[in-house]
Amino acid sequence: MTLTEYMARLDLTQVEMARRLGVSLSGLGKWIRGERIPRPRSMVRIREATGGLVAPEDFMPSLSDPELHPSDMNWKALALLATLAQLTLRERERRLRKLARPSENKPPRGRAA
Asked: pTM for the complete prediction?
């Protein structure tokens, strides 16, 4: 189900949906129009806010769309979505949460003393 379909089902405006997700109205509009693909952290919020009805793969454009031009796509995000679409729901949720968390184990930047 797309965000648009979900919003229509619940009779939500873009303003209301943006507030529920904690995102800007313009950011939500870009997701809805397919101009941007939500980042993993946002995908987790979308899944939680919609009770799982809107999933990461719902943002993946149809690669058979004749209007779709490769330069319009964020290939890194599409690769992530393709991978997530093939996982079980539990594993998908685990990976999205891991991606959404700031890494506590990253070494500090710069040279080691």
From this structure: 0.56
